[in-house]
Amino acid sequence: MCGIVGAVAQRNIVSVLIEGLRRLEYRGYDSCGVAVLDARGPTRARSVERVADLEGQVRDGNLEGVTGIAHTRWATHGAPVTDNAHPIFSRDALALVHNGIIENYEGLREMLRGKGYEFISQTDTEVIAHLIHSLYRGDLFAAVRAAVAQLHGAYAIAVLHKDQPHTVVGARQGSPLVVGLGEGENFLASDALALAGSTERFIFLEEGDVCELSLDGVRIADRQGEAAQREVRQVAAYGGAVELGPYRHFMQKEIFEQPRAITDTIAQTDAFDASIFGEGAGQVFADIDSLLILACGTSYYSGLTAKYWLESLARIPTQVEIASEYRYRESVPNPKSLVVVISQSGETADTLAALKHAQGLGHKHTLAICNVGTSAMVRQTELSFLTHAGREIGVASTKAFTTQLVALFTLAATLAKLRGRLNDEQEADYLKQLRHLPAALNSVLALEPQIIAWSEEFSRKEHALFLGRGMHYPIALEGALKLKEISYIHAEAYPAGELKHGPLALVTEAMPVVTVAPNDALLEKLKSNIQEVRARGGQLYVFADADTKIVNGEGLHVIRMPEHYGLLSPILHVVPLQLLAYHTACARGTDVDKPRNLAKSVTVE
Ligand code: G6P
């Protein structure tokens, strides 16, 4: 999704800005741009192609400057055309980049038109540029503070003005923004990752903060306009760009990284001890009587799976809700409920807003399960568990999902132990199963050639159904999501028992029905569901545990999984579905790592 980079230095800063954009590219965008200040004012280059094209333009146009801002845009208001790409100018004096959505832009646009401002783009962003310009009286910091007081919605912005050649001003509300501190130069970005290589010292701005970067320092004002001191944090973990290695796409690489990612995630778990979730977790866990899980997309499906573990292992009532729904509905808060937010990025706007909403309703206990230790979500929760999946580049989440599942299973087992529902022997057994999981995953990954054979067939379909039961129903949902995200095949998932209540009407020879078939208590029921599909000429593609005795037959294609893996089985069963989606997308020739219209980190509502 949208990305911001800004810099004030004594050297030509264009390569730092372009490199920053390149590091944010994987998040998804549909246009990009850069602006620098020179004696005449801001100059810019913009592209509706990739950052590489922008770099070519910059080189050909000899764009150079010591102060600049840059942006990758994921279109919300206005199509991805050059006029709508950022930086947006106001009267050739001011340049601005913006992440987020301004909700009151229509009213502001009318007001600014009344003052003679001409609107060239269809963006909501242009109102911010003109608004700041209209309020500018020789002090950009003051003008931005006055302007943001009039904005409703979510934003992170970076602005420069021709009369202040060594200044970049930033502001944030509902969208992340960090300051990077250098020696005689300072930076701004929507993600610290963008500044890897330029600095390791960061200030994570707080909601409502406005900052001013100059060559020798940074000043920050809080929402009330008071000077604010913010902690400087050393973040060395950003390293270099992630390499693709022998893989064709990052998604494939990340699928195959899952055994390693899970090994790293469980490295901290010698016992199911509350302290894994942070200081004071033991007390919090003793205090709570239920869980409220909030998340979006794939992270939501990991929450849905966890509900089965939490209720069966720990016997703790668990509610799982899509964050964007929860934040806007009237719910009945329970202060004794632990709010668990699950997020790969820790920056998803809806999940962050749902967390704040829950806190506002009086939920005092909060836990983030997240892959980014410096993210807003981890900073805003009482407890946290980091998944250590490593950076995930593919938009379609894979290793982040399976490591979330490991984290959530650990949570369920920890709560079970605290509630006297897990004896020493069971604890040792679950720990052993967790440690064996990477090896078990490797044997599932070895099924890739068989899955490739199926994917040829799938690539010619336009629809697919996914079935699962019990804790494998969310896995079916995740399988369908993966397929639609990257292959653009319409896919839906149902709990298999629901088949006869609707989706059976869709079953014909043309509709592949993917079935997740673990050897669990629901197997016999699932076998009946399989027969219901076969009787109607449907084509079944079944991932069946070794001991299920489901075998190939007419209309029945089976890939044999390892032996049933008990409660952790969903973590194994999602992997062939990831591979099926991946290879089907490859066969259809889509842009697997950057599927159309989607973004890695959805920082707008
Ligand atoms: C986007 C991504 C998904 C992800 C979802 C939630 O839609 O494309 O892969 O599952 O956001 O993201 P989060 O970072 O909160 O897990």
From TrEMBL:
- The reply on keyword tRNA processing is no
Reactions that this protein is recorded to catalyse: D-fructose 6-phosphate + L-glutamine = D-glucosamine 6-phosphate + L-glutamate
Compartments where located: Cytoplasm
User: Which Pfam families does the annotation name?
Assistant: GATase_6, SIS
Q: Which domain of life is it from?
A: Bacteria
User: What SUPFAM superfamilies does the annotation carry?
Assistant: N-terminal nucleophile aminohydrolases (Ntn hydrolases), SIS domain
Keyword Transferase annotated? yes
Which residue range or ranges hold the Glutamine amidotransferase type-2 domain? 2-216
Identify the EC number(s): 2.6.1.16
Keywords for this protein: Aminotransferase, Cytoplasm, Glutamine amidotransferase, Repeat, Transferase
Occurrences of domain SIS (ranges): 281-421, 454-595
InterPro entries the record matches: GATase_2_dom, GFAT, GFAT_N, GlmS/AgaS_SIS, GlmS/FrlB_SIS, Ntn_hydrolases_N, SIS_dom, SIS_dom_sf
Q: Which residues form the active site?
A: C2, K600
Q: Which GO terms describe its molecular function?
A: glutamine-fructose-6-phosphate transaminase (isomerizing) activity
Q: How does it assemble?
A: Homodimer.
* Protein function: Catalyzes the first step in hexosamine metabolism, converting fructose-6P into glucosamine-6P using glutamine as a nitrogen source.
Concerning HAMAP family, the annotation shows: GlmS
The name this protein goes by in its record = Glutamine--fructose-6-phosphate aminotransferase [isomerizing]
Organism in which the protein naturally occurs: Paraburkholderia translucens
